[in-house]
C-alpha cells in the first residue's frame, strides 16, 4: 500500500486500446481515485486541433503540439517534484529516455507505482484503436501500436526494480487482475494455467517472481 507520508507517483501504461484512458481513475487505489491523471495523448490531440485551426497545416500542427506537450509535461513534473505532491500520468515507455521521469521522482523521495494493462495480441490492440478512431478518438499507426505492445513489456523487464509496486491486468475481455508485485515479493490470484501467455512470454522476469 502507498505510504500516507511519502509523496506518491502512479504511472499507467500498457497496450494501445487496453482501456487505460477509460479505466484509469478506477485503477488507482481508493485513497487516490480523485487524483488528476495526466494523459499526454489527449493533450496532444487537443493541441493538434488548435494549431491546425491556426496554421492549416497538419505537419506544423503536429510539430507544435509535440513541443507544447513536452513543455507542459516537464512543467507538471517539476511542479509536483518541487512540492512533493502526488502525481499520476499515462504513457508509453518504449525508449530508455522515457524512464528518466520515474527516476527523477524516485530520486526526489517518491514511492512509485506502475499499473500495466495488457491485451492478448497485437491485432486486438489495432482493432480497438480503429474503433476508437471511428468515435473521434486518438489515432495511432499499426507500426506504433506493435512497437508499444512489445516495447512497453521489453522496457518494463529491464526497469521493473525501480517500482515500489507493480499491478498487471489483462483487459482483453473485461478486467482480469494478473498480479501484484512489491519489494516483498509477488502475488497472483490465478492458477498458472489461467495466467495469459502474453504475460508469461512478454514479462518473464515478473512471471518468475509470482511463480515462486
Structure notes:
Helix content is 48%, strand content 18%. It is α/β, with parallel strands linked by helices. The protein has a domain at 8-30 and 90-211: 3-Layer(aba) Sandwich (Rossmann fold). A hairpin with a 5-residue loop joins strand 5 and strand 6. Helix 2 (40-55) packs across helix 3 (58-82). The radius of gyration is 17 Å and the shape is globular.
The helical percent reads 40-55%
Poorly predicted regions: none
The separation of the N and C termini measures: 21 Å
Along the chain, the helix and strand elements come as EHEHHEHEHHEEEHH
Largest sheet: 7 strands, mixed
Q: What would CATH call the architecture of the domain at 8-30 and 90-211?
A: 3-Layer(aba) Sandwich
Alpha-carbon Rg, integer: 17 Å
| Strands in their spatial order, largest beta sheet | 2-3-1-4-5-6-7
Mean pLDDT: 89
CATH superfamily of the domain at 8-30 and 90-211: P-loop containing nucleotide triphosphate hydrolases
How many DSSP helices? 8
CATH class of the domain at 8-30 and 90-211: Alpha Beta
Strand content: 15-25%
Described by the principal axes of the CA atoms, the overall outline is globular
According to DSSP, the number of beta strands is 7
According to CATH, the fold-level topology of the domain at 8-30 and 90-211 is Rossmann fold
Which structural category do the helix and sheet elements fall into? alpha/beta
In short:
The chain is an alpha/beta fold and 212 residues long.
Amino acid at each position: 500500500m502507498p505510504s500516507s507520508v511519502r509523496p506518491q507517483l502512479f504511472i499507467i501504461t500498457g497496450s494501445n486500446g487496453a482501456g487505460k484512458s477509460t479505466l484509469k481513475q478506477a485503477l488507482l487505489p481508493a485513497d487516490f481515485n480523485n487524483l488528476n491523471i495526466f494523459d499526454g495523448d489527449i493533450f496532444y490531440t487537443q493541441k493538434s486541433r488548435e494549431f491546425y485551426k491556426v496554421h492549416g497545416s497538419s505537419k506544423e500542427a503536429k510539430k507544435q503540439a509535440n513541443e507544447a506537450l513536452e513543455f507542459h509535461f516537464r512543467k507538471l513534473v517539476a511542479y509536483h517534484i518541487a512540492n512533493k505532491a502526488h502525481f499520476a500520468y499515462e504513457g508509453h515507455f518504449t525508449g530508455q529516455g522515457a524512464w528518466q521521469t520515474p527516476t527523477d521522482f524516485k530520486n526526489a523521495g517518491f514511492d512509485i507505482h506502475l499499473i500495466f494493462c495488457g491485451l492478448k495480441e497485437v491485432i486486438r490492440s489495432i482493432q480497438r484503436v480503429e474503433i476508437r478512431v471511428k468515435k473521434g478518438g486518438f489515432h495511432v499507426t499499426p507500426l506504433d501500436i506493435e512497437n508499444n505492445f512489445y516495447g512497453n513489456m521489453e522496457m518494463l523487464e529491464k526497469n521493473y526494480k525501480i517500482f515500489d509496486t507493480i499491478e498487471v491486468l489483462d483487459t482483453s475481455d473485461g478486467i482480469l487482475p494478473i498480479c501484484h508485485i512489491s519489494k516483498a515479493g509477488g502475488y497472483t490470484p490465478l492458477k498458472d494455467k489461467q495466467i495469459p501467455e502474453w504475460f508469461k512470454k512478454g514479462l518473464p522476469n515478473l512471471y518468475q517472481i509470482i511463480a515462486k
